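User: ok so my PI wants both of these folded by tonight, can you help

Assistant: No problem, let's get them done. Here's the first:
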Amino acid sequence: MPGELESPAAVAEASVELRILVEAFSDAAERALSSGDFSGVTSSDLERVITAAVKLYAAKSEVDEALAAPISAERATPTEVVVVVSEMLRAVNLNVFDLAMWYRRPR
């Protein structure tokens, strides 16, 4: 049940499971990108993955003092980032002025 304390063994097992899933997802995404075949990629799957990643990053940023960048600048282009960020802002009914207020907040 979410929110319940888990044993260290359960936490370690979840951590290993997450690493395996991240590898599998990253490999599948790279194959789709290199082949140009996105027929097996549904919008709802992307929404679930991006939402989960955003929520996990935001939660981790509240407890980690020095959190790594959310993406690799070597692997994502500025255009790709702007496309995703723009749609994320629209999805939660924010605009660039709202973003500007958050952008300057202390870490």
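One down. Here's the second:
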Amino acid sequence: MLKINEELSKKENIMIEIKPQIKNEAGEWIQNKDYKLELIGGEVVKITPKNGSESFEKAVYHFDILNDDGTRQKGFYEIPTTNKKGEINYQIKKMIELELDKGDIILLGTDEKGYISITKVGEASEELPTINADDDEEIDPKNIPF
């Protein structure tokens, strides 16, 4: 990506399509980039091609892309829900096996055999409990969760 486009996408908070693989001139899939991602959420969307082909579904995962320089960008990753045999896509199976949840950190890349690899490297941090108290009410130090 051109430096100016990268800067503008960060400034305008534009969603970036996450592409661990791209096609080369010969039409072969090759490694593009490895990503460190924080899961924000996801959804299943139905795609109806304009050319009249049969409709199909894709899982669309939303992530914060965690850049090496400490910055974050919004991104999305689309996966067809099934393969050509009608079986659930191996990438979705992997995400289910990893029991991913909102806030979890993954590495998304390409393994040595050329397949998409998904590795969980961090879990969502637990939220700290809150104490509800009126301004005049005293708080017992034993009830403070630190």
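Residues 3-143 form one domain. Helices lie at 3-12, 90-97. Good luck tonight!
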